[in-house]
Amino acid sequence: MNTTPIAQVLGGPTGHFPVEAEIVGYLANTWSVPVLLGVFAAGWIVILGSTNLVVKKYNPTLGAGDKATILWFVLSYFSYNHARMAGMQDFFAQLWKEYSWSDSRYLTSDPFVLCMETVTAFCWGPLSFCVAWMITSNNPLRHPLQALVSLGQIYGDVLYYATSMFDHYHKGVTYCRPEAYYFWGYYFFMNFIWIVIPGCKHCTSQPAL
User: Fold this and answer.
1) Prior bond to 140 cis, omega within 30?
2) Is the model's pLDDT at 47 over the cut of 90?
3) CA dist list (Å): 159 to 12, 82, 152, 153
4) I need a labelling partner for 143 at 20 to 30 A (CA). Which of 2, 47, 100, 198 fits?
């Protein structure tokens, strides 16, 4: 007979973990996950396609590697500037609320997450856009700034993992629902990208420093 407390399976009043999480004014999403992901993918196609056209116009001789780097930093810029949540029902709020099943800290005004997102919104976001423009215009400061932004992305992601894992193993507090796809798909994979790609970009900039 399964004796697991029902709260450990279903979560708190909103379904989030930990069960005692206080999420003020929470409104459940009205868009389904496939619709959210479909609109999200379509939006990225438009943004990255438009960026590619601008790059081709201003620097048609730019190599494929540099074009890919530009698209990455433009993606970073837009990702950093769309978040703030629980009682909102616009597209980006619902997208972030879907992600919050893997980390409820995004809905509880967690001090670390709030500070991290503020720094990325006002620092790494705009600088990512600057890096993209510097690559397009062959600015000599491209590599120093690219290395700095990439290192900042890695540092923030490592702290994000570390604070969550510390609470999980040291305090016994879990922010993710028990379903594996929320942990491995949302929490682990979607954040691990922000270590791997910035790590590669940081390394490619080193010879030019």
Assistant:
1) no
2) no
3) 26, 21, 11, 10
4) 47
37 phi/psi in degrees, rounded to 5: -65, -35
The answer to whether 205 touches 144, Cβ cutoff 8 Å, is: yes
Other CB atoms within 10 Å distance of the CB of residue 62:
16
In the three-class reduction of DSSP (H, G, I as helix; E, B as strand; rest coil), residue 142 is classed as helix
If you search the block for the tokens 């379509």, which residue do you land on? Answer: 42
What DSSP string describes 172-186? Answer: ----S-S-HHIIIII
Instruction: Enter the DSSP assignment of 171.
Output: I
Look at residues 72, 101, 68 and name the one whose alpha carbon lies nearest to residue 184: 101
DSSP H helices in the chain: 6-10, 33-58, 64-80, 91-99, 111-119, 125-136, 142-166, 180-181, 190-205
Q: How confident is the model over 138-162, as pLDDT tens digits?
A: 999 999 999 999 999 999 999 999 9
Instruction: State mean pLDDT over 97-114.
Output: 89
d(CA 150, CA 201) in angstroms, rounded, equals: 7
